């Protein structure tokens, strides 16, 4: 089992920044695993934000956040980060961290590819 705990959410004005953290515990990740961030706004479906391969650090982003958000990980701390800059009101959502035990870049943005999920952290961007 893997436990994921997100932190770092909050209220920020448009144009501001936040950094989310996701601490993983439990099983060690395999060479071919990945971590992702998703978000869900009220009344909307959960959508992909970004992903990173656990060992190699290769990243992939949704078009809506490319150039503004950066996903990273500290391998030794089993922690993944999402640095969010130039935030917009439309970025308001609950942000979820997820772990994918078998990385497949073809399905990395599909939430069904992920095996473990955190409880989510609220991000609110005011205009």
Structure description:
There is one protein chain. By secondary structure, the protein is mostly beta strands. It has no helices and 11 strands. The strands form 2 sheets. Strands 2, 4, 5, 6, 9, 10 and 11 form a 7-stranded mixed beta sheet that branches. Strands 1-3-8-7 form a 4-stranded antiparallel beta sheet, with no helix packed on it. A hairpin with a 6-residue loop joins strand 4 and strand 5 (47-53). The radius of gyration is 14 Å and the shape is globular. The mean pLDDT is 94.
How many beta-strand segments? 11
Beta strand %: over 45%
Helix content: under 10%
Main sheet, how many strands, which sense, barrel? 7 strands, mixed
> End-to-end distance, in Å?
40 Å
User: Count the helices. How many?
Assistant: 0
Which helices and strands occur, and which strands form pairs?
Layout: E1 2-7, E2 10-13, E3 18-26, E4 34-40, E5 47-53, E6 59-61, E7 69-74, E8 79-84, E9 93-100, E10 116-117, E11 121-126
Parallel strand pairs: 2-11
Antiparallel strand pairs: 1-3, 3-8, 4-5, 4-9, 5-6, 7-8, 9-10, 9-11
């Amino acid at each position: 089992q893997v436990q994921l705990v997100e932190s770092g959410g909050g209220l920020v004005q448009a144009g501001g920044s936040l950094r989310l953290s996701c601490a993983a515990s439990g099983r060690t990740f395999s060479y071919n695993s990945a971590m992702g961030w998703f978000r869900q706004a009220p009344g909307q479906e959960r959508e992909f934000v970004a992903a990173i391969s656990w060992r190699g650090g290769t990243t992939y982003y949704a078009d809506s956040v490319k150039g503004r958000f950066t996903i990273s990980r500290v391998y030794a701390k089993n922690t993944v980060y999402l640095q969010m800059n130039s935030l917009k009101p439309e970025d308001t959502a609950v942000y979820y961290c997820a772990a994918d035990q078998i990385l497949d870049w073809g399905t990395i943005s599909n939430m069904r590819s992920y095996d473990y999920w955190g409880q989510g952290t609220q991000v609110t961007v005011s205009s």
